[in-house]
Amino acid sequence: MHNFEEELTCPICYSIFEDPRVLPCSHTFCRNCLENVLQASVNFYIWRPLRIPLKCPNCRSIIEIASTGIESLPVNFALRAIIEKYQQEDHPDIVTCPEHYRQPLNVYCLLDKKLVCGHCLTIGQHHGHPIDDLQSAYLKEKDTPQKLLEQLTDTYWTDLTRLIEKLEEQKSHSEKMVQGDKEVVLQYFKELSDTLEQKKKIFLTALCDVGNLINQEYIPQIERMKEMREQQLELMTLTTSLQEESPLKFLEKVDDICQRVQILKQKPLPEVQPVEIYPRVGKVLREEWNRIEIGQIKKVLIPEMKISSNRLPCSWPDKDEKEVEVFKALNIVTLISVILMLILVFNQHITFVNEITSICFSEVSLSVYQSLSNNMHDLKNILCHTLYLLKEFIWKMISH
Q1: Which of 68, 134, 195, 289 sits a CA distance of 20 to 30 A from 9?
Q2: Matching PROSITE patterns, A to Z (predicted)?
Q3: Could you report the per-residue pLDDT of 266-319, keeping only the tens digit for each?
Q4: Is the distance from CB of 309 to CB of 275 less than 8 angstroms?
């Protein structure tokens, strides 16, 4: 049954026979195909003759057809039965047309260089195209693979292989460069992160130290005041209980309570003054760190943080030394005032000097300058505190 479909194909339309009719010369064609051939023959006559001559498309013999036309030709029932049985069976080894159902691809279109079926040539998109049978087309294209193989193995493809190898080599080199850059980025930002983490720890440590200084400043005073308040409450309780004592007990206790009250009242109370923290971290970060380049972060010094407070003294000098102390105090006040004026001038230009030092000074010079700046700030606070104490002392002496 191999290539059996060729025996079932109409030689005119190259499709499986449809309504096969047999000519007197024993050749079989599709009814519609013979109708087309007959119509072409009738067009040569002015009137329709009683017997219509028809030339067989296969053997070219002249056959006379009755006036009823192709309907007068007998049906090839044996062939039609074979075709029906053939169409009912599956033929996996036969390639059929994807556009026309169960029509075998048995013709080669020379224009489109592809296999087509008979319907493609008659009613499909290949109508009117030049065609060839499979065997002839095969013999013509049989040597094509060898020619293609020669084209695919010439110097062009050798150069292409070398180009691919070169591109892969360049790609590998570029990928190594990218990987190296990734490692550089990771290392750079790791070092930067470590530096920032170290600076952050130093800042936090400095602030913890300031917190400890604040505790040292306030906790003793708070404890001392709490102790005085407890003594006050105790004396209030004792004073209240005196009213219930007998005269004897009353007289025994009242003088002691009076003395304790006087002693308690004579204890000086410190004046509450706010503690200043300098320098302030926000100002340092905002005015100095924001102007620092990333590469200079390692060289930036963390300023030493301190506190300062202005409080009244807990005791006063004896009255017999008033005049001498007042005279000394006035001289000191004058000296301190001059120094304070110089410090204020220095502080007004501190921002400008910071910018100059960050550009012109070396790391060692910058360290010395920052240390000097901190010392000047400390000196200013000490002098302000001393001036305040002298002012209160002089006022106390004058009022007495």
Answers
A1: 68
A2: ZF_BBOX (PS50119), ZF_RING_1 (PS00518), ZF_RING_2 (PS50089)
A3: 888 888 778 888 788 888 888 888 888 887 877 777 777 777 755 433 333 333
A4: yes
